TrEMBL record:
The lineage of its organism: Eukaryota, Metazoa, Chordata, Craniata, Vertebrata. One of its GO terms (biological process) is vesicle tethering involved in exocytosis. It comes from the Eukaryota. InterPro entries: EXOC6/Sec15, EXOC6/Sec15_C, EXOC6/Sec15_C_dom1, EXOC6_Sec15_N, EXOC6PINT-1/Sec15/Tip20_C_dom2. Residues 260-280 are annotated as: Disordered. It comes from Aotus nancymaae. This is Exocyst complex component. Component of the exocyst complex involved in the docking of exocytic vesicles with fusion sites on the plasma membrane. Residues 82-109 form a coiled coil. The gene is EXOC6B. Keywords: Coiled coil, Exocytosis, Transport. Residues 421-770 form the Exocyst complex subunit EXOC6/Sec15 C-terminal domain. It holds the Pfam family EXOC6_Sec15_N.
Amino acid sequence: MERGKMAEAESLETAAEHERILREIESTDTACIGPTLRSVYDGEEHGRFMEKLETRIRNHDREIEKMCNFHYQGFVDSITELLKVRGEAQKLKNQVTDTNRKLQHEGKELVIAMEELKQCRLQQRNISATVDKLMLCLPVLEMYSKLRDQMKTKRHYPALKTLEHLEHTYLPQVSHYRFCKVMVDNIPKLREEIKDVSMSDLKDFLESIRKHSDKIGETAMKQAQQQRNLDNIVLQQPRIGSKRKSKKDTYIIFDTEIESTSPKSEQDSGILDVEDEEDDEEVPGAQDLVDFSPVYRCLHIYSVLGARETFENYYRKQRRKQARLVLQPPSNMHETLDGYRKYFNQIVGFFVVEDHILHTTQGLVNRAYIDELWEMALSKTIAALRTHSSYCSDPNLVLDLKNLIVLFADTLQVYGFPVNQLFDMLLEIRDQYSETLLKKWAGIFRNILDSDNYSPIPVTSEEVYKKVVGQFPFQDIELEKQPFPKKFPFSEFVPKVYNQIKEFIYACLKFSEDLHLSSTEVDDMIRKSTNLLLTRTLSNSLQNVIKRKNIGLTELVQIIINTTHLEKSCKYLEEFITNITNVLPETVHTTKLYGTTTFKDARHAAEEEIYTNLNQKIDQFLQLADYDWMTGDLDNKASDYLVDLIAFLRSTFAVFTHLPGKVAQTACMSACKHLATSLMQLLLEAEVRQLTLGALQQFNLDVRECEQFARSGPVPGFQEDTLQLAFIDLRQLLDLFIQWDWSTYLADYGQPNCKYLRVNPVTALTLLEKISREMKDTSRKNNMFAQFRKNERDKQKLIDTVAKQLRGLISSHHS
């Protein structure tokens, strides 16, 4: 039972599998049926499967047959209809063939005409296409032709613009044509040609600018000078409510504005020719001298070509080279003012051009580049001026140079260049100017002092008197009351020197103008320079005159009088400086004039020279002294040379009436002391080995003559016997020997009230030995006279005793 159920179950499963395989065979593509059939043969029930397959085939055949039977009548009807249509179709074909034959025959001419029309239309289309292409190419050719024309006429910037339009707008539209390829290949060459030509124009421009920088600078400095003159007129004639324009507005040289995208002009030129203008005509602006179009063209061309940086570097490099050339001064620049002027003109011209380029281009030069160039120029210019100005020995040239430097600085300051260092350098040149002035005035003072007659100025009329007083501040009521003719106490060099000092002050003031100094600084500068003039130049000139070998006492006396009056005039010089500088002398830090010291020193030197000169004259007279120291005779009168010497001294001291009392007294005392000393030296000189008491008596007469001169009061102001004290040493020495008062001398020696207090034991011993030698020599000659022998021996013993005692005094004094 169970087996039967199992067999039935397997039979059902097999049947289901076969059914699946059949459905798969029916639905599967023939190419893929192999695996299905393999699964059948792999099983054990393929027989049963074949049966089922046969059954399924029979079923399908029955279905096909049923379907064919269902549609058969319709198929028959369709065949019948088709047969009917075939006949009609044959008729229609014949009619169409006939109609076609007729149509072909009738349309043959039309076809020929249409063929001709076709050819015409084709030609027309070709012509139209050709015209279109030509219309497309013509602008290219016209632009190229325009480009060549612009190149020929050297209008390079428009040519570059044309080339740009040609390359980017026109050529791309016709790029497939052969001639366009030729143009495209030629475009880089044209660009290079434009660059080269524009660079050549720039080089010509730079060369022209270099050659004509001095003309540009001269123009700018003339305009600056005109503005300064105008400013001075405005300051002298102020107008209420008037507004001054800035200097920059007045000085503008290049006033043509340049657009950054197009050049100034299409004409190539560098420096234009300008005729020399008369002084009263308007000075041409530098825009009348310079055409900057080559720079602008070249800048724009290089900008368009993308090489602006290259152009900027080249321009700056070339201008730096030109700056170094401009800043190199000529070796002989210091010889004339024109040398300095040309040097300044070139520098101004250079920087005026650069300033214009700075303000009319965008970035070709910048402020940093200009400042760098200016710093270099400023240092080199100042160094050159220091070097060359040091060679200038003419103060007028130095003053003109200073004015030129001020104009140079003012001109460049207008363009924004800092010039403080130039004004600082002018202060250095001011010191040099002072030195050149001092050298010049040294010559002036020397000429004045050499040409002076050292005599009081005589005046014969009121007019002459007022003229002298107008030249020199002198007031003397007593002199004014005197009738004409009369004399000023001073000589001509006093008013001349005084006026030259004032001229020197004016010269110093001229240099301080336009230096932007305060009144105090100007006052200080003038006072210091004037002090140098007084303490060095004038003082040296006076000292040289005083120390001259041939100077006379009269001249020295007059110099003392002159310096006294010049010393008194110093306060007027102070007032003169105060008036021109408007700085009161009481102001703090105001320098005082040292004129008083200068003239005092000169006066003291003259006084010393008088003393020296007097002593030299005395020495000259003493050289005429011819004493016979062995004589026994007495002339009872003074020696001739001494009489002449006394007469000379009297006449000399008579001239000293105008000198200050102390000067005359000192001179007189000095002369007497020197005379006494010289006479003492004559008496004690080593060459005189022997002398007699008779010669001593004659020498005593000469000393008495000197004492008589001293008592006569040759110069007023001495007390009773003050002047005689100069001869006290001689007097006591001579009295000691003439009176032979040795006992008193030896007894009182060393006491304050000693009669022979001024007699030195050494001096007494020296003179005593000379007398002793003479007596011994005389004794040997007179041996034949026995009666004199005893007296002489006694006197000789006395002399020996006195000499021994004198030596004792000397020894005790030294011990």
